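Journal club prep, notes for RB
We'll compare a predicted complex against what the paper describes. Inputs for the nicotinamide-adenine-dinucleotide case:
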Amino acid sequence: MLLFETVREMGHEQILFCHGKNPDIKAIIAIHDTTLGPAMGATRLFPYVSEEAALKDALRLSRGMTYKAACANIPAGGGKAVIIANPENKTDDLLRAYGRFVDSLNGRFITGQDVNITPHDVRTINQETKYVVGVSEKSGGPAPITSLGVFLGIKAAVEFRLQSKQLEGLKVAVQGLGNVGKNLCRHLHEHGIKLFVTDVDPVKTEEVKKLFGATVVEPDEIYALDVDIFAPCALGGIINSHTIPSLQAAIIAGAANNQLGEEQLHSQMLADKGILYCPDYVINAGGLINVYNEMIGYNEEKAFKQVNNIYDTLLAIFNIAKQQEITTNDAAKKLAEERIMSVSKSKLKEIAA
Ligand code: NAD
């Protein structure tokens, strides 16, 4: 990978490679854009197949955070950190060493919980730095509000694509029954939606089957199901040239970050197939809204009001896409870039005054 060329093309401000021998730690902190505020982005711990794969993930996820904050109207920039490690090798020493790297950025980067990082881990990181959110869990963690945001996004997509406010009787396929996926299933079940679910962990599928009467399918069967909505809530890259031809859903609306294998190519393929794609960083902004509200002093009413905006923002994006004949992915970027540009311009005016 041509590092500086890639970073310039994607618009990143700074990449920090964190390395230590004792404990043995390899982590990457990517800061994409701080125009709207300090870079916010959760930390993911994952046994990446290569360092390049880890870097790519950090670069894409951090850029997604910039767009996410801008679309959610949160005064924060975009960042993301990845720790390259097997979850079995995660220790408090490793997390504390990572916390010291975060602290060295002095508030330019504020982090929280993502895949393979637990609330306990966040508190461990907090022993070394105050620049970590989701510690106090005043709200009960980000997953409930994220899943509510995804549910509201599904409502907006159904209204736009299926021209209906009726959810009862619709069929939704949920991939991944972790913190977000399981909560999403609860919302959908409560609204009379028929669930088809999958997870690599049979304990989780069994639980959701019992709780919500879901039909369980094998992980590779989830794409081709005859459903109205596909909700990816596991890992990224699952909407690609291999899976798109088999998709039968009219709507893709889920929490997973970076769902599109290749943004331009695959968002266009979805549009060509008449599938309405809810851009991941817009529909899953509930987590960011939640942690941001915890950071400024949690007020449940305010946080939930902001999550409700996901519904209106998505409808606005769908309409921009329709009017300008562009993909919903491009429409969301347009909306985010316009918001960032207007703040950047007013900052320049302030400096000039
Ligand atoms: P999680 O780790 O709790 O759950 C992920 C689930 O996906 C696990 O149950 C795992 O077994 C399952 N899974 C992994 N590979 C799979 C596969 N190939 N097929 C089916 N299932 C598979 O994570 P989470 O907090 O629920 O987050 C889910 C996704 O949403 C992630 O991409 C995360 O980045 C994103 N997200 C989460 C939040 C949040 O508030 N937690 C906010 C925004 C975005």
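Talking point for the session: The radius of gyration is 20 Å.
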